[in-house]
Amino acid sequence: MSIILETKDVHLSYGKKEALHGVNLDFEDNSITALIGPSGCGKSTFLRCLNRMNDLIPNTTITGSFQFHEREIYASTIDLVELRKQIGMVFQQPNPFPFSVYENVTYGLKLTGHSDRKFLDEQVERALKQAAVWDEVKDNLNKSAMSFSGGQQQRICIARLLAVQPDIILLDEPTSALDPISSAQIETTLLELKKEYCIIIVTHNLQQASRIADRTAFMLNGNLVEYDNTSKMFTNPEKQDTSDYLNGKFG
Amino acid sequence: MNNIFTTELKKLFSVFTEMGEAVSAQIEQATESYISHDKAAAQSLVQQDNSINTNEVDLEKQALTLMTLQQPVADDFRHVITILKASSDLERIGDHATGIALETIRVKGSQRNKDVETDIAALTVMIRTMLKEALAALQSFDMQSAQAVANQDQDVDAKFDQIRRDITAAIQVDPSVAEAGASYLMVTKLLERIGDRIVNLAEEMVYNQTGEIVELNQGRLHPNG
């Protein structure tokens, strides 16, 4: 398993308040890594650093190293559109654009200059199939993406991201707004997608982390407490804090 | 529950079934080696038991991983618990069969009693039939079969009592059979214990299906009956 993204000594401050106190994490290709921890521990903040989503927040200072394909994500030469094409993100609330399913999935492709109808058709089908939502939307590609169920909308958002063929998929609590059946469908989709992508997921659902993640990172108060194979972490964690959190004793 | 759990549970059941077949063969071969006084065959059986013990440990590890990572509830939870408990019973049945093989190696004296040995062979057939039906009931979730298996244990207990009386009578008639008689008693008792373990399998099947913890062992319900 090869490391696709490596972060070292990541510090992030909002003004004078430091939210991440030196996090070191590396991520393997073709695997799912879960970031867990109580609210405010910094896991979403850290996730958003990985495709520079924190850049727009005023007074934010980020230091440390983020090596992706042997390039520094925060280098001044990095093209943000290109970066976010390679490292895409799915959010807690499904956020399809108020367009048709077809226009949602082709949005990123059109942005990068693709206009050939046949190519776009092929990519729409591929992406929707990979996101395991093709069968449910294929007869309604021109219908508004907003008209589908929450679970379907979330998978359309995953397809929108897959259309531009990213390397890494970031997911910030992607199922917390969904019912158990839709959540299970997303989990099954992610288990399929990990064969081709590196997936990093922030989740409050510990069962979800244990079910699907190959590795799990536990964060607390802006620090990385423990990072290990999920089976080891959930069976015999090294740190008492990890055990206490997994057992619901705090957080 | 998700596909990973279903796939892993199927694998567990499949390993469990193989373990059951191996243990059944172990009982047959152990008794055969005992009756035919084949110490070499018994020796090889004792070595084979290690692989059954290893299987049981592997099965246990896999079941525990499944419990920890997939955190099953309701019927999925019962399936994993059933395999955990049943594999432990199978492992102990394997140990009892090994006990018979060890007795084959240990026993001395050439003075034997053909009738008792024939009865031990008959008891072995009863035990193996019970085991086969218990394993089938576990696979098919057949509640009636589970009760039928438990009922057969009463026949096993009756056969055990009869053999015990015959051994005592044979020793009274010809004291030179005493050494073999003690060994016969040991082996017959091991077979009877295997019967009790098979009743456990039937009880586990009921738990698997209904979540009820039941006592199907009539001997335990009525120790003097």
UniProtKB/TrEMBL annotation, chain A:
Keyword Kinase in annotation: no
Ranges where the ABC transporter domain occurs: 5-246
Region forming the signal peptide: none
InterPro entries in the record: AAA+_ATPase, ABC_transporter-like_ATP-bd, ABC_transporter-like_CS, P-loop_NTPase, PstB-like
Coiled-coil regions listed in the entry: none
SMART domains in alphabetical order: AAA
Nucleotide-binding keyword on record: yes
Molecular functions (GO terms): ATP binding
UniProtKB keywords: ATP-binding, Nucleotide-binding, Phosphate transport, Transport
Protein's organism: Secundilactobacillus angelensis
Entries under PANTHER family matching the protein: ABC TRANSPORTER I FAMILY MEMBER 17
Name of the protein described by the UniProt record: Phosphate ABC transporter ATP-binding protein
Pfam family, one: ABC_tran
TrEMBL record, chain B:
Domain PhoU: 17-101, 126-204
Subcellular localization, as worded in the UniProt entry: Cytoplasm
Gene3D superfamilies, alphabetized: Phosphate transport system protein phou homolog 2, domain 2
InterPro entries xref list: PhoU, PhoU-like_sf, PhoU_dom
Superkingdom, taxonomy of origin: Bacteria
Keywords: Cytoplasm, Phosphate transport, Transport
Stretch forming the signal peptide: none
Role noted for this protein: Plays a role in the regulation of phosphate uptake.
Family under the similarity heading: Belongs to the PhoU family.
Subunit structure: Homodimer.
Protein name (database record): Phosphate-specific transport system accessory protein PhoU
Species whose genome carries this gene: Secundilactobacillus angelensis
Originating gene: phoU
